[in-house]
């Protein structure tokens, strides 16, 4: 089993992705779930940079552009998600996800 | 640090790099890069730590003189008893800070309480890496140097939150939130005022930006960015935003004594307080250094005839001039309230910085205009700078007329 | 593989794992910020300097602020930000799911022969990134700008208080 550097980078990003996944699935605080989702997005970005670095045409910069757009969109998603968390807190006074299970407040 | 490839520079110019090479030439090739980098880091840190000590004294002396009093002039040298007109004051302050008891509140988060000044100082020192101090004195040559500078500066805001939260003091937390609001608000004019410089220079690298300002108009007038309409407006916006980013008066709400004692620094004493203080002065020096690099021509001499003076002396002179203006402003203006300073940032500086970007774009597009059109170019650019400034200023200060006092 | 990469990878995954497991929400957020900084270090190791600085500027410099403000605004008591740890009923299925996903991914990665270039890549300069952004990808840039504007305006509208403003408030 010969692991090239690309394999090791992908294993690193898979480990980070699964840490984020476990965190998002197991915690009941909405903010921690959002942080888990952010970790998963970052793991995806690591994949893109790993393939850019070890891919056939790294001078093109496509991987870098992809990651820049992904960082921008993740930032927008984090802002909206945390605004929603604040709105939920205003409504039910805590942010336990089990209690945010009604369509009509 | 790069060495020149063409004809050798005069001796004074080459002196710092020659000294560094003399210290590391005996090392094998593979270790030389590491030793050079370490020496550069040590040199930058020593220079700016000494400058910090002298700046604390200079600030108190300048404030004193503006307020018609002598300032500190009594601290004697230890064991010698010589009065030195206040030059030993930083030494006395340092000894005091080091020997004070380090108090941590009982319920405070000890790890975060310890980490906050460390993180703040670390990121502040990291911003010194991309400022070109001389023709051959750039510690790290980065392609995206300006982005690195502002990224390291943005990371310092996290340490302020850590300081406010870890103190377990609701007033510290409140003051940390206000400080963060101020820093976030002024980051936008700071970055937006730098974008026209990057637009005109065509690069994010600080060494390229300084070299682009190296020409002289008609052989004698320096073509620094500050001497163009968009550069002048950009420099003023950058300067005001730098005042606010380093928590200096008149934006020193986070650390003023009449505002929640010392804001997020209330529960810090002794050496940790000295570290916060040092980080604030380092931030001031780094922002001034970046302002000199981006707008005032960096290490370029103002007239070609004065080119015999080494480049790092010119940089030091410009840096000290900017720092003097920082202190002069502190002595002159009253403090702004939190709503006033956020209003200034969002409603005044950000629109002006956006218009400035448009002005710089016009300047670049009209670079080919010559003769009488060159005069028209200056007039149009000047109108684009002054018009919105006057219009916005009038609109925002409508209703805030001159005060009329009634003496009871 | 180089020691630097192993160190960066270990620190990033370790800080992220501890961040997901802690009770203290502030420490959790700050450890996650440390893992974002570790990811920026990975980008620097891989030679993508622009992305590394953008990661620090956006994540460590801005998103961390948003997360910390949200934590402070939604904490249960005035002095602390403790949350209940993951109960066994939620943790076990999460671990099983995460473990299964990890197994599938690792199996896929180790089992697939990936071609890699031998030599280090030529560095992509900021100038090329700028030319690409303003040339072929200009439409995407405009769309991302519009998306960011809409998202942040929406976030402000959602998070702002629903009280009607007093007429005496200074504007």
Helix content of chain A: over 70%
Count of domains of chain A? 1
β content of chain B, as a range? under 5%
Give the oligomer, counting copies of the same chain as homo and different chains as hetero.
heterotrimer
Query: From the helix content, strand content and strand pairing of chain A, which structural class follows?
Result: mainly alpha
Structural class of chain B: mainly alpha
The sequence of SSEs of chain B as H and E is HHHHHHHEEHHHHH
Largest interface comes to: A-C, 74 and 81 residues
Shape of chain B: globular
* CATH class value of chain A: Mainly Alpha
Order of helices and strands of chain A: HHH
- Specify the overall morphology of chain A: elongated
Instruction: Fill in the CATH topology of chain A.
Output: Helix Hairpins
Largest sheet of chain B: 2 strands, antiparallel
Rg on CA atoms of chain B, Å: 23 Å
State the end-to-end distance of chain B: 67 Å
- Largest beta sheet of chain B: what is the strand line-up? 1-2
Number of helices of chain B: 12
Key phrases:
heterotrimer, A: 105 residues, mainly alpha, Helix Hairpins, 3 helices, 74% helix, elongated, B: 408 residues, two-stranded antiparallel sheet, 12 helices, 63% helix, globular
């Amino acid at each position: 089993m010969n692991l090239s550097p690309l394999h090791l980078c992908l294993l690193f990003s898979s480990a980070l992705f699964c840490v984020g996944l476990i965190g998002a699935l197991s915690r009941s605080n909405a903010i921690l779930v959002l942080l888990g989702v952010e970790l998963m997005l970052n793991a995806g970005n690591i994949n893109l940079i790993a393939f850019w670095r070890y891919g056939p045409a790294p001078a093109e910069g496509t991987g870098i552009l992809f990651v820049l757009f992904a960082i921008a969109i993740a930032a927008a998603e984090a802002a909206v998600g945390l605004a929603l968390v604040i709105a939920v807190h205003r409504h039910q006074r805590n942010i336990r996800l089990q209690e945010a299970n009604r369509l009509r407040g | 640090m790069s060495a020149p490839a063409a004809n050798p520079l005069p001796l004074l110019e080459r002196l710092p790099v020659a000294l560094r090479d003399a210290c590391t030439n005996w090392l094998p090739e593979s270790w030389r890069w590491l030793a050079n980098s370490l020496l550069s880091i040590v040199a930058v840190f020593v220079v700016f730590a000494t400058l910090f000590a002298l700046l604390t004294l200079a600030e108190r002396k300048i404030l004193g003189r503006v307020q018609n009093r002598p300032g500190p002039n009594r601290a004697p040298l230890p064991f010698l008893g010589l009065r030195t007109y206040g030059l030993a004051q930083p030494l006395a302050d340092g000894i005091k800070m080091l020997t004070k008891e380090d108090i941590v509140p009982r319920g405070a988060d000890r790890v975060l309480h310890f980490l906050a000044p460390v993180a703040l100082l670390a990121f502040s020192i990291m911003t010194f890496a991309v400022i070109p101090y001389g023709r051959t004195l750039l510690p790290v040559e980065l392609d995206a140097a300006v982005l690195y500078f502002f990224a390291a500066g943005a990371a310092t805001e996290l340490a302020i939150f850590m300081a406010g939260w870890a103190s377990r003091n609701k007033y510290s937390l409140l003051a940390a939130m206000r400080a963060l609001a101020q820093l976030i608000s002024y980051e936008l004019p700071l970055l937006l005022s730098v974008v026209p410089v990057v637009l005109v220079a065509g690069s994010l690298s600080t060494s390229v930006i300084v070299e682009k300002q190296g020409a002289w108009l008609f052989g004698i007038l320096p073509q620094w960015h500050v001497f163009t309409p968009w550069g002048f407006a950009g420099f003023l916006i950058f300067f005001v935003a730098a005042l606010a980013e380093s928590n200096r008066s008149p934006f020193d709400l986070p650390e003023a004594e009449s505002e929640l004692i010392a804001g997020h620094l209330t529960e810090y004493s002794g050496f940790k307080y000295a570290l916060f203080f040092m980080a604030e002065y380092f931030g001031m020096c780094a922002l001034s250094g970046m302002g000199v690099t981006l707008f005032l021509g960096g290490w370029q001499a103002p007239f070609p005839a004065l080119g015999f003076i080494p480049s790092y002396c010119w940089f030091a002179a410009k840096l000290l001039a900017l720092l003097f203006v920082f202190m002069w402003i502190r002595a002159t203006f009253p403090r702004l309230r939190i709503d006033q300073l956020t209003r200034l940032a969002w409603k005044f500086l950000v629109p002006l910085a956006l218009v400035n970007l448009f002005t710089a774009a016009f300047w670049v597009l009209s670079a080919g205009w010559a003769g009488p059109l060159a005069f028209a170019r200056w007039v149009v650019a000047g109108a684009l700078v002054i018009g919105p400034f006057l219009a916005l200023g009038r609109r925002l200060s409508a209703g805030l007329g001159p005060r009329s006092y009634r003496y009871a | 593989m180089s020691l630097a990469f192993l160190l960066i990878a270990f620190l990033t995954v370790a800080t992220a794992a501890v961040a997901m497991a802690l009770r203290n929400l502030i420490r959790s957020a700050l450890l996650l910020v440390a893992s974002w900084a570790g990811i920026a270090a990975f980008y620097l190791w891989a030679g993508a300097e622009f992305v590394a600085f953008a990661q620090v500027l956006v994540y460590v410099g801005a998103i961390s602020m948003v997360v910390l403000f949200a934590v402070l605004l939604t904490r249960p008591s005035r002095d602390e930000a403790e949350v209940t740890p993951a109960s066994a009923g939620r943790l076990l299925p999460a671990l099983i799911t995460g473990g299964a996903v990890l197994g599938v991914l690792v199996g896929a990665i180790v089992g697939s022969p990936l071609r890699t270039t031998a030599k280090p890549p030529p560095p992509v300069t900021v100038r090329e990134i700028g030319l690409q952004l303003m040339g072929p990808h200009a439409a995407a840039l405009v769309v991302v700008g519009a998306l960011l504007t809409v998202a942040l305006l929406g976030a402000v509208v959602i998070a702002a208080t629903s009280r009607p403003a007093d007429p005496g408030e200074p504007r």
